[in-house]
Write a sequence for this structure.
């Protein structure tokens, strides 16, 4: 990402509507798997709030890593330990070291060759039966200004992502789109306002007026209620998947 995006991430990820709503959705998908004491590898920890959240709310022992020294400095400022600088496709951890891996909006920064390599590494470092929670921007045609600021390389469709995850040695447990209700607004911004120069040059991660933040969060909370019923969303700005490493499986 551009350096200032880490600054904004640190500033906004605790309270901004998108992060709050997506954490609620992640918790819903993880519900069958949540138990304290799990060893979790957070792949691409950014400014560190998610790792702190896992430890405080899930009772997990978290091992965060990131490639950005700026991100790691922010994460260290949150008091996180066991921080490592590493790349997604070359993890400095022994096979079978973790109960779970989380990778949230990071794999989209890898091209179509390096993404599958990262998924294979996630499978390698998981214990048999361990699980992966992965979120990534969806729908290639939604690439826009924010995508450039975070160095987004590849947006996935559901079929493509499913195939890549299964080829890496996982069995899908749940897969859904997210940020479905606000997709028309995202499409308007990306395909009309940005090309016409009518949208802000800033990225999507920035402080908002409280009324707007509340309204946008309400949309994600409604989606979360739907997901709690077991219904998956058919389209959206993001993809969220939960996948398990089968006992005895070995990543190719």
């Amino acid at each position: 990402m551009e350096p200032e995006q880490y600054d904004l991430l640190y500033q906004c990820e605790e309270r901004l509507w998108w992060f709050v709503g997506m954490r609620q959705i992640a918790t819903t998908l993880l519900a069958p798997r949540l138990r304290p004491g799990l060893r979790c590898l957070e792949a691409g920890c950014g400014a560190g709030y998610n790792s702190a959240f896992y430890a405080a709310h899930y009772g997990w022992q978290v091992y965060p890593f990131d490639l950005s020294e700026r991100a790691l400095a922010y994460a260290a400022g949150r008091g996180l330990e066991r921080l490592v600088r590493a790349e997604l496709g070359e993890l400095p951890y022994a096979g079978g070291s973790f109960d779970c891996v989380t990778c949230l909006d990071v794999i989209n920064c890898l091209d179509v060759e390096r993404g599958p390599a990262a998924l294979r590494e996630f499978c390698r470092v998981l214990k048999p039966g361990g699980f992966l929670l992965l979120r990534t921007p969806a729908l290639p045609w939604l690439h826009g200004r924010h995508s450039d600021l975070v160095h987004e390389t590849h947006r996935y469709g559901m079929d493509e992502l499913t195939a890549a995850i299964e080829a890496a040695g996982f069995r899908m447990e749940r897969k859904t789109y997210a940020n479905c209700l606000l997709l028309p607004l995202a499409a308007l911004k990306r395909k009309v306002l940005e090309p016409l120069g009518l949208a802000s040059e800033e990225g999507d991660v920035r402080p908002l007026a409280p009324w707007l933040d509340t309204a946008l969060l309400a949309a994600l909370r409604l989606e979360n209620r739907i997901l709690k019923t077991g219904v998956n969303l058919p389209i959206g700005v993001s993809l969220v998947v939960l996948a398990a490493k089968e006992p005895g499986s070995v990543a190719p």
In short: The beta strands are 39-43, 61-66, 84-85, 98-104, 126-137, 170-178, 238-245.
